[in-house]
Amino acid sequence: MNFDINNIIRTNIKNLKPYSSARDEFKGEASVYLDANENAFGSPLATSYNRYPDPMAYAVKTRLSQIKGVPPKNIFLGNGSDEAIDILFRSFCNPGVDNVIIVPPTYGMYEVSANINDVELKRVNLTADYQLNLEGIAEAIDKNTKLIFICSPNNPTGNSIHREDIETLLANFNGIVVIDEAYINFSRQKSFIQELTEYANLVVLQTLSKAWGLAALRVGMAFASEEIIEVFNKVKPPYNINEASQQLALEALQNTNQVNDWIKETLKERDQLVINLKNLDFVLDIYPSDANFILVKTTAADAIYNFLVENGIIIRNRNKVELCEGCLRITIGTPQENQTLIETLKSYKG
After folding, report:
1. Average pLDDT of 264-287?
2. φ, ψ of residue 97 in degrees (nearest 5)
3. Is residue 73 classed as helix, strand or coil in its secondary structure?
4. Is 3.90.1150.10 the CATH number for 257-346?
């Protein structure tokens, strides 16, 4: 496999001269800033947000580098992982010409981004045990296939994808393999970010929205080669991570012990919830999970979902998703929330 980014990057992106702000052109501290047409008097808030943020969120990347063991130059920060997904399409896929491969059932934004960017989507369904169909993927790849998206642990099924199967793709595909690890903190599996030096065509997505509990801040991460990260930085809006999100993310990233405690508690609650759900006669199966949610096969998914909504409990109905017929996806809540769910389900009369 001879991956060369120049063979897959769009010509207009290769030739793109990115927007440059004064904050890009000037490094260091100044005493007077009269460059960016900001309000020099401050903000009508306790904290002043009148100055534009660091375009590269370097302080956050530096802290992430310490936690993840990856140099800052290999980290991109986006407005959620969704921004990183969109930039992959805009940078590497020519609209109306190129295609990408997804492996359903999987995260829905890959398809939405493909449709927004007018990029053909090829679906190669997972196997019955929710693993990659490598033969099917190999058959689907053609000269215009630029990206393959793999979610591991997978949403909505919760399982991790076999590592050796992903490595097979990385070693043999001349495009980019995107591994979405939004739920990796809950998994026993090792992250692929340690493999960045092995595979030039690897992009790993992670997020601060799940285990880190910062969903409202919208901070997603992409880890990749310096070449690929440079493309991300070229295409992104100048100030894509706002100052409040940068400050709060930096503060949160000092509290790894709290997050680790919550992960342990979540896994303990997940195990207990599985035991309690198995006692309900309308539950047919609960699939093994490496995430902070479980996929539950039931006798009447729509009716159970509607019953819970009527009782003020919101879960995700996956009944109409391919290979997830009859299934509900349930996020692991607090002990009290999980107990309320079980008590409510016990009163369901199917």
Report:
1. 98
2. -125, -55
3. helix
4. yes
